[in-house]
Amino acid sequence: MPKAGYDAHGCDVQATTQTDWDLTQGGEVGRLVLNRLLALVPVLLIVSFAVFFLLALVPGNPAITLAGGVSATPAQIAHVTAELHLNDGFFVQYWHWLYDALHGNLGTSLSTGQPVTQQIEQRFPVTFGLVVASAIVALVVGIPVGLISGIRPQGAVDGGARTFTTLGLAVPSFWLAIILVSIFAVHWKLFPSTGYTAITASFTGWLRDVTLPAITLGLLVGASLARQLRASLIDALDTPYIRTAWAKGGTRRTVLLKHGLKNAAMPVVTVFGIQIGYLLGGAVIVEQIFAFPGLGTYMLAGITDHDLPVVQGVAIVFVLFQMAMSLFVDISYGYLNPKVRVS
Asked: Among 169, 174, 307, 339, which is least packed, fewest CB within 10 Å?
């Protein structure tokens, strides 16, 4: 008779089952990634076409700007128009751009003459660092406020937390940036008002430069996370399994963090993944305010100059980043909720 925990061949049944489970989960994650990659193709096509179409509706002729503005002669304008194929039809222009993009070429900036792909590679770390710093600020603010507010709802602390989150959601990011600059940069001189130091050059310099922009973007996201965590935690703590955990003699830390917070985290993870899109969009304005040489500043310059390759390239990068965050959220579900792993 085989021993308990072993099959007739003497193999560890528990270890075999765990291995099969890990392989199954690896296959599920692989299929999820593949499905997301397949879904990314029509999304990128729709976004690129929409940006192309909207920029075509913007009044003005980019050939006039590139030829020298109001002082440009008709011959110069005609030369630039023919060189950039601006006389071609809308769909022909879009097809030329799409063909080059599929081969890894996002085109050349109409205003600077520099390759868009190269500029994005140089500027992406600036925006990525700002988004990561803002996300850390959001988590540092949102999770403690949401926990304190959700554990003891309707109390004095909860009232103060709700007032704080309401202000955080209501204040525009550009107005908050101006207030922070006025207080911490102009009056107290603790942080610089503008400028950027690369993290590879000086970490302390980068941290000093990115603090005010990260707070500007992170507070709103933190307020959203706190609101969502409060509501989810209140619902989770009022469920039968929490009462069972209390009845079995569970400690306050175990019940609140292991059972309550883990089950209340799924909606918060969803909101956090969606809010990353806000951080990217908000970076366009915040980078301009704080003079950051990131993708946001680059995109605004492209919109002002009617520089289609620049706007298209940055929009594609934003979509790819948001889709990656959505994939991260879906994978996180499997670790937070066993029912999702089984399904």
From this structure: 339
One-character DSSP codes across 255-285: IIIIIIIHHHHHHHHHHHHHHHHHHHHHHHH
DSSP for residue 54? H
What torsion do the CA atoms of 136, 209, 114, 83 make, to the nearest 10 degrees? 80
For residues 5 and 179, which has the higher predicted lDDT (pLDDT)? 179
Three-class SS of residue 253? Answer: helix
Give Cα separations from 96 to 99, 101, 303 (angstroms).
5, 9, 20
Mean pLDDT value of segment 223-234:
93
Domain ranges of the chain: 27-102, 116-342
> How many residues make up the chain in this entry?
343
Q: Which two tokens stand for residue 23?
A: 């392989």
Options 1.10.3720.10, 1.10.630.10, 1.10.357.10, 1.10.10.10; CATH for 116-342 is: 1.10.3720.10
Q: How far apart are CA 4 and CA 2, in angstroms?
A: 7
CA–CA separation, 218 vs 150, rounded Å? 21
Tokens of 200: 């590879």
The predicted-structure confidence for 65-82, as pLDDT tens digits, reads as follows: 777 777 788 888 888 788
* pLDDT of res. 225: 94
Q: Determine the Cα angle at 311 with ends 319 and 121, to 5°.
A: 70
- Write the pLDDT tens digit of every residue in 94-151: 888 888 888 888 888 878 889 999 999 999 999 999 999 999 999 999 999 999 898 8
Q: Long-range contact list for 183-192, CB < 8 A, 24+ apart?
A: 184/212, 185/212
pTM of the model: 0.81
pLDDT more than 70, % of the chain: 87
Which tokens is 240 given?
A: 């039968």
